[in-house]
Amino acid sequence: MSESATRSALARLAADLEQLESQSQLRSLDHAEGVNLCSNDYLALSRDPRLKAAVVEALQGGAALASTGSRLLSGNDPAWESLEEEFAAFVGARGALFFSSGYAANLGLLSALLRPEDLVFSDSANHASLIDGIRLSRARKVVFPHLDLNFLEDRLADSRREHCEKFIVVESLFSMEGDRASLAEIAALAEKYGAALIVDEAHATGVLGPQGRGLVAEAGVREAVLASVHTCGKALASAGAFVAGSDILKRFLVNRARTFIFSTSPPPYMAHQIRAALRLARQADDRRARLFSLADALRARLKELGFDTGRSNSQIIPVMLGSNDSALRAAEALRRAGFAIRAIRPPTVAPGTARLRISFNAGLSETDCERLIQALAGATISPHAPALRVSAQSSG
Length: 396
Fold this sequence. Notes:
This protein is an alpha/beta fold. Helix content is 42%, strand content 15%. The termini are far apart.
């Protein structure tokens, strides 16, 4: 590339950044300092000494620091195959395949599975990885309003005359809304109209369902689900993700999912870490109970104070503020009060729905929650306020 072309390209990038900044959408990297309310470490396992010990034990036992290649080349360590079998049994599936991230899992699954002639029904609040996987597949899509099952059924009924494969794609627990899909009802619609069901369990794995198996297990619809996706970087305090389903699905993905085929396998010691986290999560009913006790109490207090928490009924609580500026000012005020929390803005959420996203974990204390309430109650949150103020008592 010539120097002039380089300057031109960089100027275009700079203009794009300036536009983002003018719309209060410019993002930057930062450290989460203070009481962490933006972490997905729902069971507070990320610093658990038992998990650290599992990694040390794996390394001392000879587990390699690097896989040295993709699973189809040199990276298929027996630890991964054993873990996939254990995870499949955990969620009640016949097979599971591990991907390097939840994003890679959704992208690989959907871009391999869907074809341009297929018809996909996708919830409007679905994660970007689901949206991008559908786009990459070039399948036709119907985006239905968030959890509007009447709208979904109407569109499914309209598609009856179409001779094509149909798919419904949803999250079980939505990452920005904090609400749960009615999987039993969606599975019934899928059965009625001949659609296959794909469920992203990223924020439910380890948290919801019996022993943390997810909402597919809780709803008893495993056999109705073609594929479920379970990330390990949230409640399981590790990294990567599983796609769970049938043996045929697993074999198909090994041959067709490009994000699996062309990615270097994670190091074998990580398989031991995930196995340890999975076994801890199975026994974490007390942590799950505490997590939801704290979240339910905070949500009730927020509503008493007049805050809009949307349809949340989980450990994820949005505080809906509307404008980007309001969300940014609120996040900054809470940062000054000693809380790590992020303003969530478009395009992550729809325009006009900027918010704070409070993400609970079982390691929080009642004192943390009370201080948060005081900080929010003492703040002036208005799109027209010149600044957001936090009362002295909430500054910790």
